[in-house]
Design brief:
Blueprint (H helix, E strand, L loop, with lengths): L1 E3 L9 H11 L3 E6 L4 H16 L11 H9 L3 E8 L4 E7 L3 H4 L1
Parallel strand pairs: 1-2
Antiparallel strand pairs: 2-4, 3-4
Length: 103
């Protein structure tokens, strides 16, 4: 099992991060992400502006939820669980059985 808790929003290239995680996940991949709404995007934008003003290179990102799930699906996994919380949405994906394993 691979767990990415409060990590995806720290990477600008979520596709690369989630692709690597999906390749390493034997059965389950669980990740959390901030909700993609106006409030979260505004808060992240303001926080990033403050970080930039302070000279910090770190930035946080609000990635499109369905695009993140699509990346994981492209690596042979299926969405099994999604829990939308106030600050974090938790998503669990399971590796699909390969045809060779089912035979």
């Amino acid at each position: 099992m691979v767990v990415l808790h409060r990590v995806v929003c720290c990477y600008p290239d979520y596709e690369r991060l989630q692709s690597a995680a999906a390749r390493h996940a034997r059965q389950l991949l669980v990740f959390s992400h901030p909700p993609c709404n106006l409030l979260t995007r505004s808060n992240f934008g303001l926080a990033n502006l403050v970080r930039k003003h302070r000279g910090t290179d770190f930035r946080a990102f609000v990635h499109p939820p369905e695009a993140m799930v699509a990346v994981v699906r492209s690596h042979g996994m299926a969405l099994r669980y999604r829990h939308p919380g106030l600050a974090w949405t938790v998503v669990a994906c399971e590796r699909l059985a390969s045809p060779a394993a089912a035979a």
